[in-house]
Amino acid sequence: MRLRKALVLMTVVLLSILLGYGIGVCKERASLRTMMQIYSNVLTYIQMFYVEERNPSELVENSIKGMVGALDPFSEFLNPEESEEFSIATTGKFGGIGAQIGIRDNWVTIIAPIEGTPAYRAGLIAGDRIVEIDGKSTEGMKVNDAVKLLRGEPGTVVRIKVYRPVSQKEFSIELVRDTIFIDPIPYYGKLDEKTGYIRVSSFQNGLSKEFSAVLDTLRMRGVDRLIIDLRGNPGGLLNEAVNLLSLFFEPGTLVVFTKGRTPDNNFEYRTIGEGKYREVPVVVLVDKGSASASEIVAGAFQDWDRGIIVGDTTFGKGSVQRVFKLQEGYELKLTTAKYYTPSGRCIHKSEKV
């Protein structure tokens, strides 16, 4: 019964691909049908003759994970438990070490440590490779799998081995997990009588409204020029980046666009509102820990010659993931497009995507 259920699951998945999108060439369709039959036969033989009994649903799940994992570092097939973890990651509060991570050269890599967290206090920096987590190698590991290993109850210990490319040194550290809360604007103030400074740590929900209120306060205190600090900011919500840019540009200004393989993944994002601070001179600070939404903001200021960009080359995370809800709590996080600055520069650093 379990085998039949697993076969039905995989057949439905493959038929959806075949019938929903089509291959367009009869020969390729025949080839896909052949592979579907081969898959069914392999699963049947494993269940009938393999030396140990295996759960067919787990076999199918792992095979789908392998298929999606071969696409790029950011596409993932998530089971219900992993889907819940993914949802927790977007709330701004969780237990862990306090670092945004990504994949670089097939290794789990620090994009940016979050200020005031265990990772930040331990001295981890953007570009550090986490090569082991509690003795387990991270080579080829998906981001979500690394997140599961790094997160845990506050007060528990996680041991990681780190390789630092800038010094070509490897070292091991123990981190005590803590409750992580991300303050999107941890600091703002005046650097002199006319210069304001706003540190933006993430583009989470509500950031643009808080940013506008902070800038209103600084303006009332005499500020007429602004430094926006995006160093170590790993990104976040695209709409918050667009809303922030809307404060500084004429309404309807193109600030970023996406291009995918199909037309329905091609979008243009333009500013809205009155652009009440479009006359305020801006300097944007970035570093190699600035990623995603941070790169979109910096790119728009740079392409429109609206501000001065100061700092290092940014991380280069400019791919778009769309989440597809599946049956029984499963989800597919799939890369569907890439981000481009207004002048047409691709934000994403060239890898497999």
How does this structure look, described?
Belongs to the peptidase S41A family. This is S41 family peptidase. It comes from candidate division WOR-3 bacterium. There is one protein chain. The chain is 32% helix and 28% strand. The strands form four sheets. Strands 3, 4, 5, 6, 7 and 8 form a six-stranded antiparallel β-sheet that branches. By secondary structure, the protein is α+β, with helices and mostly antiparallel strands. The longest helix has 24 residues, at 26-49. It contains nine helices and 18 strands. The chain folds into three domains: 2-68, no CATH class; 93-181, Pdz3 Domain; 187-327 and 336-340, 2-enoyl-CoA Hydratase, Chain A, domain 1 (Alpha-Beta Complex), CATH 3.90.226. It has helices at residues 2-21, 26-49, 56-69, 80-88, 118-121, 143-150, 207-220, 238-245, 293-303; strands at 76-78, 93-96, 99-104, 107-113, 129-133, 136-137, 157-164, 169-176, 178-181, 187-190, 195-199, 225-229, 254-260, 267-270, 282-286, 307-311, 319-325, 331-340. Residues 18-23 have low confidence and may be disordered.
